[in-house]
Known about the structure:
The complex is a heterodimer. By secondary structure, chain A is mostly beta strands. Helix content of chain A is 0%, strand content 54%. Chain A is built from no helices and 11 strands. The N and C termini of chain A lie far apart (38 Å). Chain B is 0% helix and 55% strand. Chain A binds chain B through residues 8, 32, 34, 36, 41-46, 49, 87, 89, 93-97, 99-102, and chain B through 31, 33, 35, 40-43, 45, 48, 50, 88, 90, 94-104.
Amino acid sequence: RKEVEQDPGPFNVPEGATVAFNCTYSNSASQSFFWYRQDCRKEPKLLMSVYSSGNEDGRFTAQLNRASQYISLLIRDSKLSDSATYLCVGGSTLGRLYFGRGTQLTVWP
Amino acid sequence: DGGITQSPKYLFRKEGQNVTLSCEQNLNHDAMYWYRQDPGQGLRLIYYSQIVNDFQKGDIAEGYSVSREKKESFPLTVTSAQKNPTAFYLCASRDLYGYTFGSGTRLTVV
Lengths: 109, 110
């Protein structure tokens, strides 16, 4: 079983839509969680960290459910520029992080 | 500005050749990582180093070698033993706030 698993999609949504991604992690000892965004043929870039209490950054909301071992990302009012692959990441605080395979999002006009 | 620099951006290797990918960071991070990305397979860990002069194999270390003689530098050598080296190679360093990636090297076997 992979450490971090996520639905690869693709998700195709119109501009203005709300879209949610979920991922699950297998190691209950994992302490650090992130969402990364990767554009085509580019390196991944940190979108946001995920905290137990949930956190919001503009149109993006991340949540962590430790009991069920899943992480979510909600994007509200989708923009064309949100089209990318979103990587779910989890692992230890200062050691190795594990990446999901990514969820592809396409926002259409 | 602090960051990670990978070079070259594109690299072509003949079969049987060893090639070395450069990764330099000025973020003062202790931990550094090398990942390989193939289409549809996500990121796979090749090697990582948590401190100077120490490194560990990741999930797909066969055919690769690394060194960590300086905190700032973590070069990756793709040896002729790596039978399918064509891929996008990403170097990263991390702190409490996650990974910072370099812009990657695309390696192609010709």
